[in-house]
Amino acid sequence: ALLGVVSDYRYEGEGIRIDGVTEGMPAARAGLVKGDIVVKLGDSIVVDMTSYMDAMSTFKSGDETVIEYKRGEELKAAQVKF
Fold this sequence. Notes:
By secondary structure, this protein is mainly beta. Helices cover 15% and strands 39% of the residues. Strands 1, 2, 3, 4, 5 and 6 form a six-stranded antiparallel β-sheet that branches.
């Protein structure tokens, strides 16, 4: 499964900060934008790139789940279909 984001590898906080979103991919369809910080994917808490990759490995094309992310100080959630 692909989410369609480019991660900001310089980000040192908790989660992964999105540096870019590919148009037409699941992240874009779910409304994610550059600067959003992914903190949860399905049942998996995302604290860093390793936990993000581990979470992504549990999904395949066609799966649906909820992605939780921070936009500024606000915690948001969106349905995402891979």
